[in-house]
């Protein structure tokens, strides 16, 4: 079968992890995939997760299937986390949440559900966006478009371009946003800008779909949900894909959720019925462990507090690495103003490094950066920061 079929290219992000693993050089540095590392370069299991797992092991009495939509306690915890305590959306049962296998699983279930009822819609992605967004929505059968988002000249949001793009998108199309910590650019909309985007959504009648993979990595768990709250207050239909890979460190447990918000509880029940039909034919029902861990932490006040503290620790270390990188480049006299790296939010920085520099760093210094110049700040540690700054300085001067 495969004789006349050419091999597929490696994944632009996970393929880099594979290449990194195979690199025998002890000095190698992985600034590619969005995985948190501590200052020792390890991806830790959070202490609150370990404690929740201990409790679960003690309490677990069955491995029977979960419902198609997952554990209802998990869904309730997710809704409280993404909409906030006492949210009207939750109180009036306008949100339908299913446990999906990771953020990617949530996006794909959402894409399949939308395609069932809006097959002719176009899905609009920010320019640039997470590489996998294109694959997920195209594979679900959608044609894709791009809206203006990042301006390389100002290293900020091109808000005029964004508004122009959004106003030209017709009713019935789908627009994907990053709710916080835009991946790959690290630049987010401010509050006024989000309110304007919501007003355009209302005026134009397209469907907002918010990818919420980094809640708590921007400013904080509550602050980072601003966009979700604004869309909630608008009364519009919209979708939210959550991931708990990063903020709970549950990467390999594939713990995510898809939430469909509707104007009324009756419509929400219809949405849930179709969500189940979509899930049933892909993976039937979700894996339990990650959802149980998350729900255990979020419903126990002590573990919840501990999680918030551990999450703050991760966020603060990344902020410290932003400063260390900027200071390190300045100290080496690298030409240019790198202060924008300090203003960006989340795990990533669009470093401004060209693809040629990215290739040079990999070939000569065993430093792995995603094409386009996205750096995972969490890959920097006090041990490798000097090596990385020296290498970037050499790359830019050579
Ligand atoms: C990333 O952007 O690096 C992460 O979201 C991991 C992934 O699956 O690509």
Which structural traits does this protein have?
398 residues, alpha/beta, 7-stranded mixed beta sheet, binds (2S)-2-hydroxybutanedioic acid
Walk me through the structure.
The protein is globular. The N and C termini lie far apart (47 Å). Strands 2-10-9-8-7-3-4 form a 7-stranded mixed β-sheet. Strands 1-12 form a two-stranded parallel sheet. Helix content is 45%, strand content 14%. The chain is an alpha/beta fold. It is built from 15 helices and 13 strands. Bound molecules: (2S)-2-hydroxybutanedioic acid.
Show unreliable segments: none
Small-molecule binders = (2S)-2-hydroxybutanedioic acid
Shape: globular
Strand order of the largest sheet: 2-10-9-8-7-3-4
Q: What helical percentage do the residues reach? A: 40-55%
DSSP strand tally: 13
Class by alpha and beta content:
alpha/beta
Mean pLDDT equals 96
| Rg, alpha carbons | 21 Å
Largest sheet, in brief, is: 7 strands, mixed
Output the helix-strand order: HEHHHEHEHEEEHEHEHEEHHHHEHEEH
Cα separation of the termini: 47 Å
Number of helices: 15
Q: Per DSSP, what share of the residues sits in E-state strands of 2 or more residues? A: 5-15%
Which helices and strands appear, and what pairs or packs with what?
Elements: H1 14-22, E1 29-30, H2 47-59, H3 72-83, H4 88-91, E2 95-101, H5 102-117, E3 122-127, H6 131-139, E4 143-148, E5 150-151, E6 156-157, H7 159-168, E7 174-178, H8 191-204, E8 207-212, H9 226-234, E9 238-243, E10 255-261, H10 265-280, H11 289-298, H12 301-331, H13 340-343, E11 348-350, H14 355-365, E12 367-368, E13 374-376, H15 385-397
Parallel strand pairs: 1-12, 3-4, 3-7, 7-8, 8-9
Antiparallel strand pairs: 2-10, 5-6, 9-10, 11-13
Helix pairs in contact: 2-11, 2-12, 3-11, 5-6, 5-10, 7-8, 8-9, 12-15, 14-15
């Amino acid at each position: 079968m495969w004789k006349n079929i050419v091999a597929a290219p490696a994944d632009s992000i996970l393929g880099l992890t594979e290449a990194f693993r195979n690199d025998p050089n002890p000095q190698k540095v992985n600034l590619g995939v969005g995985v948190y590392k501590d200052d020792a370069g390890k991806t830790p299991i959070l202490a609150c997760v370990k404690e929740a797992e201990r409790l679960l092991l003690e309490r677990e009495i069955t491995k029977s299937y979960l419902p198609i939509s997952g554990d209802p306690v998990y869904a309730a915890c997710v809704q409280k986390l993404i909409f906030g305590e006492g949210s009207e959306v939750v109180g009036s049962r306008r949100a339908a949440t299913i446990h999906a296998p990771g953020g990617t699983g949530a996006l794909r279930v959402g894409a399949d559900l939308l395609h069932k009822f809006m097959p002719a819609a176009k899905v609009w992605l920010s320019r640039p966006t997470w590489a996998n967004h294109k694959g997920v929505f195209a594979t679900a059968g959608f044609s894709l478009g791009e809206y203006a988002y990042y301006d390389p000249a100002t290293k900020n949001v091109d808000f005029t371009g964004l508004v122009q793009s959004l106003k030209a998108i017709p009713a019935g199309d789908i627009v994907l946003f990053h709710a916080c910590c835009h991946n790959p650019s690290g630049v987010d909309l401010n509050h006024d800008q989000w309110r304007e985007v919501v007003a355009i959504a209302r005026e134009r009648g397209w469907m907002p779909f918010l990818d919420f993979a980094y809640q708590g990595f921007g400013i904080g768990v509550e602050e980072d949900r601003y966009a979700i709250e604004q869309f909630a207050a608008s009364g519009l239909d919209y979708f939210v894909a959550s991931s708990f890979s990063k903020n709970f460190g549950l990467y390999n447990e594939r713990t995510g959720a898809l939430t469909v918000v509707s104007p009324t509880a009756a419509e929400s029940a219809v949405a849930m019925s179709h969500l189940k039909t979509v899930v049933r034919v892909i993976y039937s029902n979700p894996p339990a462990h990650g959802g149980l861990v998350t729900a255990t932490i979020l419903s126990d006040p002590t573990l919840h507090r501990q999680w918030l503290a551990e999450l703050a620790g991760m966020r603060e270390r990344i902020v410290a690495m932003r400063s260390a990188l900027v200071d390190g480049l300045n100290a080496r006299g690298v030409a240019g103003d790198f202060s924008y790296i300090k203003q960006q939010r989340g795990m990533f920085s669009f470093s401004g490094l060209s693809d040629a520099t990215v290739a040079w760093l990999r070939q000569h210094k065993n430093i792995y950066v995603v094409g386009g110049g996205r750096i995972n700040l969490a890959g920097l540690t006090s041990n490798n920061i000097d090596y990385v700054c020296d290498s970037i300085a050499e790359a830019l001067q050579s």
